[in-house]
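Data availability (excerpt). All sequences and predicted token strings are deposited with the supplementary files. A representative entry, Carnitine/acyl carnitine carrier, is shown inline so that the format can be inspected without opening the archive.
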Amino acid sequence: MGGAANGGEKVQLDPTLDFVAGTIAGMTSLAVGFPFDTVKVRFQSPTIAGRYNSTWNALATIVREERFFGLYKGIMSPLASVALMNGLVFASYRFLMKMQLESAESVPTLYQIALAGAGSGIISSLITTPTELIKIRQQSLLTRTTARQVAWQIFRENGVRGLYRGITATALRDIGYGAYFFAYEATCRWFVSPPSVDRNSADLMKHVEESAGQLSWGPLMVAGGVAGVAGWVFTFPFDVVKTRIQASHPIYATHGSGVGQAKGAAATVSYRTPLLGAIRLFSSGPKDLNPYRSTWSTIVHSYKAEGPSVFFRGLSPTLIRAIPVNMVTFGTFEAVVRAFS
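Structure token line:
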């Protein structure tokens, strides 16, 4: 991601190298931080959040009850798509950046970097949504299952549309790529010493950009950690909303029941999957009564039921994970780029 964030010189980087470096970095960081992602999802899922009282308690409980494998439950879905995901992020980031620059030699402003990052996040949600839906369904289950079984179950019940449950909340969360790239580039530039001679603003920015591309591993790792925290802090509430939507199932009223009865029943069914036979009884299509059926309904219901603090549930393990994961991400990316450039 660091190579994509740097404008000037890096805009001309071989896209194949960008893709390979991003894929290796993504796979490495995924392996490092996935246990904390599992804890985050458990905290954000209303049906099982009460089982754990802290990040470390959750880690210990999962290992004790589900063995070490439990911490990596659901990893196959994002691991299988990490190449496509990173390729889409870097390709869209590069495209959106080039649209804003006058030439390949132009140095992007931090505003342009943030805008390109936010746009790439929205585009990447096309891949992120189904992979994270499958991952979250697996992580929310206390029994062992496979990504293929979960994906097939979702498709069988709701078709392709079912695989994109929560796409709006996912896109809103992934706008955080703007803060992510912004923070990384801003931190790299902060570490650059100002030139000893007077320069005009264009020359100064070019000097800063070229120097930022030659930083040692220490500043790059710090910049990666800062980027990881920034990327989550600004959009974390939407991650909570997304998890609640994707961890739940549609709830439909049984034939002949009134709306009031359906709502009462919905509160006791623990978000069961709909019965296909019951669906066919609705001539005008079934109405989903799940309070977590959309981004807005999830925000309203969660706020009324649990207060504003619910939108930051799971933030602790996420930030703990963000620092080492993004240090590894940017460090690996820069190592691959420098090795093959």
